[in-house]
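step 4 of 6: structure.
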Amino acid sequence: MSHQPSDEELMSQIKKGKVEAFEMLFARYRKPLFSFILRMLGDFHRAQDIFQESFLRVFRHAQRFDESLSFSPWLYRIARNLCLEEIRRRERVETISIDEGAELQPKELWEGRTPDEELERREMGRVLEGAILRLTWKQREVFLLREIQGLSYEEIAQVTGMSVSAVKSCLHRARMALKEMLAPYLKSGEIPTGRMKR
Amino acid sequence: MRCERCRRLLSWYLESDLPSGEMREIEEHLSVCKECSEELKLLEETLALARELPQLEPPEETCLQLLEKVRAMAEPKEVIYLWQEIRGEKGVETSTFETGRRPSAGRKAIPVSRSWVEVVRRFDGTRWSLMASYA
């Protein structure tokens, strides 16, 4: 069985300018990072730009990475900071309050989903995607990092710069808010019709 | 335990992230309170749905563009030199500025990046100086 280099070993190779190492790391994190960014922003086109910029920064600033630390929090921190800039820019332009939960319309979140997926779960998932976008950005990032990307509390604290206890509180508030938003659909089993805007 | 307090702690309860006494209190409350049990079920369903959400694939074109940019960044940069050749005698000088690979020995050469934009030559009465600015 061939040895699979760890993320940190790959970063060490990237520091020496090895593009193959970058390609391996990119293959590992391509989908998780794009999912995180798209769900943070709810905008397919901006998500692509920020996705590209995040990985470019990984390559460009590889020398700044401390190999004694984990790679994934470092990567998510880069993407998270870029998302935050975008959310703040959008707030300035559109004068919406991100702290109160912006009414962001998800765009193309469901493009390309497999047609044989169970319809009801898929539609309920769509409702959940919309609800996630209605969380405050702080709640959203913590919820996504924990529940979708599977980071530990300590890793989320590294990404967000919050304390572990603040991360936990934020996550619990996010969960309860989502439960409240989904409760009418989960209780009745009725799913709102109409697709998300593209 | 009151319903309000129980509901506030449900998310922590799910992760067993409470002191054992509080965990027990919640369990006891849930065993007798249908509404709070229903709330717990809703929370569990919400989290189950979230964990089922698919990881989303970025467009192939976006990935290809990115990899192309990274490969271009990784290519070794050719160092370009700006060099000056001085001809003439008795105070009458003609200088030629050229860019290219390392000039032959004996010629004054200044390594510059590919993106140099301007060269300014100054004579202070005694000697010429050369200033190059880069983009």
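step 5 of 6: annotate
 - Residues 34-52 of chain B form the longest helix (19 residues).
 - Strands of chain B lie at 80-87, 94-100, 108-112, 116-123, 128-134.
step 6 of 6: archive
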